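Exercise 3.2. Students should predict the tertiary structure of the chain below and write it as structure tokens, then compare their answer with the key that follows.

Predict this chain's 3D structure.
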Amino acid sequence: MALKTHIHREDGAQGGRYIATIEGTAGEGKLVYRRSAPGIVIANHTGVPPAFQGQGIAAQLVERLVADAQAEGFKIIPACSYVAAQKRRHPEWASVFVNG
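Answer key:
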């Protein structure tokens, strides 16, 4: 059974994070980013609790980051290895990454 998640974004002047809350649990996943220049964010870390790994929660966080980059016009530097791996798996996202 797929876990129902809700993703929200906490954004500040220096950076922020995406938080995935997992319905019916105290668990949450997160993707942390910082701003390096106007229109550029660096995705630093993506993580989910061990009990929820392999459930697609981290992928949902990256998908939300990419959707926001497409909607808002910023570019992503994938410093996080998971975000970099998702970039390689999704060539259709090249336009939102620095050096596509």
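Discussion points: The helical segments are 57-72, 81-89. The mean pLDDT is 93.
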